[in-house]
Design goal:
By secondary structure, this protein is α/β, with parallel strands linked by helices. The protein contains 15 helices and 23 strands. The chain is 31% helix and 24% strand. The mean pLDDT is 92.
Amino acid sequence: MVHFQIKGRLLAEWTGGFWVGEYPLSIMGLSFDSRKLTPGSVFIALSYGNQDGHDFVHDAYNNGANAFIVERECNLPIPQLIVSDTMQALVQISIKVRQEFKGKMIGVTGSCGKTSTKDIFKLVLGESCHATPGNWNNSLGVPLSILGLYNNNFQFSVIEAGINKIGEMGQLSNLIKPNIVVITHLGAAHLEGLGSLDSIADEKSKLLKFAKHDAILIAPKSVLNYPSFDSYRSKSIAIVHGERDSSKGYAKQYIYNWKKLNDLTAEVTLETQTQKVVYSFSSLSKGMIQNSVLVIVSAIELGLDAKYITSRLESWSPVEGRGAIRKIGNSIIYQDFYNANPSSMIDGIKAFVSCSNYSQKRLYVIGTMDELGVDFEHYHESVAKSIPYRKGDIIKFIGNEEAVQAYISGAKSSGWDDSELEYFATIQLFKYKKSHNPESIFLKGSRSCKLEDLIPVITSVN
């Protein structure tokens, strides 16, 4: 459900459709879900996947829809805007809304870290910032997200752009038209649809295709090293960990370093063009620390004061299920089960190890990773190799057998013994026992593994 107030007449003009029945003078929101309607809202009958929204118009009517946007007239006593294609109508509405937005648009993409980076932007930029709700970052979510800008006086907007096949990013770029493009990371993700790391880089670069003429690209040096970004090099701002890159061509470089303060916090030092900024950050994930730097640099480029930015950033903490650390009884649980690819898995494992060194016993519950294409066994093996062996620790793998066998092979090559490894096809078969008695627990895997289902089980045992 997107809340925005618009005249019914404008919807017809923007979509090229026509109203059957007396059109509503004012519409208070739009929803493609017939179950989620508020008074004065319009139901748009989208057809996507295996579902046809026209099958749910009666439900929408009974749930209080004020009007419909449909491709064919329905036999119901309600105003109906008839369009040739409802999905295209949604796109056209979002394009018009974007045209009317006068603030700065930030487009965020990457193989991982998009949503967390967007959330940090929202915290730093405050009430003057509109942002993607939840993780609405695909070809449906992006136009819906943009609708939230209509008739609001936001100074900034942060829109996520997520893809899983070639050709999608150019379409999203045409909707977002960013002033700043932020790319968090490039790694093996959605390879079934994207093919290779080089094609991922090429597709991610397409977010700049319809960017504003003076748009800037802000990304880690590792991203900008891909040939797909060569033509954007002169307007790129590189985020560099360690020491300044001596290579030429970047518009600017920002250098950062960090060190562990305690088991939950890092101290980050960022060198801007004019000053050195130091701040504390509630994560030991090098990926999340890098994302915080991307946000700070973007905010500086937008004209905000660096010290003001970092003071707001220090109140950030990971949200539930995205690298958050939760204490339950005597156990500390590192939980990151929103999604998983090789880069985010290895980063999460390193962060967990760093914050659990004091633990006498650690339990890793690791789900398999989806959409890795023909090389999925290689990627699973490489992740398991990154889990440092320590006597007393145990690993439980969850997921399909082929991927798990690759995990096991990688773990054994790093010193783990069969007696310390166990496999379950689904989380429902997993048996968590008090005898496990770990002081620290690591939970991470793809959404399909449903590792979040373990939280109430662990809670009840501990």
